[in-house]
Each structure stands twice: as C-alpha cells, then as structure tokens.
Structure prediction request, 150 residues.
Amino acid sequence: MYSPGKILYFDPFYFKNGNTAKPKYFIVLHVDGGNTLLASLPTRSDHVPSFLPIKHGCINADDANFNCYHFEAGKPITTNDFAFEMPTFVYGSQVDNYQLDLLKEIYQVEDVEYKVIGTLKKDEFVNLIDCFLNSASVKRKFKAILSKSL
Prediction:
C-alpha cells in the first residue's frame, strides 16, 4: 500500500498538527525501508503566481521561491487511468515525512478508512520527482531522499 508512486485517498486524513481532519489524497514519494515515508498532499488550491503559465507538469520559478506539479483535470495519470476531476496541485514546499507505523495504526481498513487509487505512470512519477529535485523551494534533506527514488 505504501510504495512510491501510489496515490491513496483517506477519509478523513488526520493532519500532523492535529487541528484538521478532512478527506485528502496522498501521494507516496519515497519509503525509506524503515518507519518513515516521504509524501505530498495534493490540493485543488491554485497558488500559482499570475505571471506563470499553468500547464500539466512542473511549474517552477526559483526567483519567486515557487514550485509545484500540476495535474490537469481529466488527464489520466495512473496505470489504471485514474484522473483528478479538478485541476490539482502538489507543492514542493509541502513535501513532508510521515511515520509509517502511525499511518498503519490509524488507517487499517481499506475501502472504509482509505482507498488505494492507483500508481502514477512511470513518466508521471519521474517528472514529479524531477520537479521537486530541481526546485529551490524543496528542503535539501528531502531532495537527498527523493534522489533515491529514481
């Protein structure tokens, strides 16, 4: 379930700060083989600066400290042809690590507490990782981890 490129849907997802719980997609970027994984939480919130064109794929402006990967609405992105219904953004600055044991403890029942949506197509996953690796807004410690994902 927690393997690189996997898209999961949690309903609800309990955020680390404990203040919020809501339905959320979750993209696994890397699993260290131990107890942590690196992931991103896609969002429909468009924070792309107005001077940048919005296109499917990487949108990066190091001079503006901005980086995201945009999934176009309706474009199949997984090996089972799943597509987000709305334009969806994954922000490099929001990549974070999560404790695998805790996730497994909270989300135990597939199709009730979570759903496995699919696995990103190889080129989509590689492009997503490259987007984050080539961004000034992604933390260096995460870049070192992400470089192992390719």
Notes: The chain has one domain: 6-149. Residues 18 and 124 are 31 Å apart (CA to CA).
